[in-house]
Amino acid sequence: MSNYTDCRDARSDDELWLVEHPKVFTQGQAGKAEHLLMPGDIPVVQVDRGGQVTYHAPGQLVAYPLIDIRRHGLGVRDLVTRTENAIIATLAEIDIEAYAKPDAPGVYVNEAKIASLGFRIRKGCSYHGLSLNVDMDLGDFLRINPCGYQGLQMVQTSELSADPRAGSVSELAKLIAEHFARQSGYQNVVAAGDAEAILQRYADAAPQATENKP
After folding, report:
1. Rounded mean pLDDT of the chain?
2. DSSP per residue over 74-125, as a string?
3. Model-level pTM greater than 0.70?
4. Which string of b and e fits 161-198 if b means at least 16 CB within 10 Å?
5. Between the CA of residue 120 and those of 30, 35, 43, 155, what are the distances in Å?
6. Residues marked as catalytic
């Protein structure tokens, strides 16, 4: 994400990366050590997004919108709202009624958190993004104060809906992509090919981009 943001220019396409991560706690720039209760054998990675600590693991959909918000005339709040609305619309398709909170970014169901948000803006472009709990072991969230909130309950789609898509990261990834494009007004949407090849392309481009910087 960082490499792509450094390498892109005003003509670069916006992208939405949809992935799953191995077990990891990520601590945002404002993260406080006191919110890491007992990480144990799960690695803790310092990242340059906003927010506090959160948890990623298989069975969770992670989406990274790499958007030139300056080109679209958007502010950070606009990006957050569009992302939350895309998640809410996705959940509505599988009969889960969710909502956002003005004072706590993310998406909630009955006061429990089902999706977390955290962005970084550089060169007028966004990276990092959202995580949606689908069908994972929620017990590891007890090792932290999720997003810096003590006792915050986490929920997941597979436990809230009988729709068969509710337990599938790949199916929900399709819906997230569709609704994010719709919320953001994209007309031309192209599905990428081999994810590993795409990531390697950006990794290979990074040294050249660094050398060309003044």
Report:
1. 89
2. --HHHHHHHHHHHHHHHHHHTT---EEETTEEEEEETTEEEEEEEEEEETTE
3. yes
4. beeebbbbbebbbebbbebbbebbeeeeeeeeeeeeee
5. 12, 21, 22, 25
6. 147
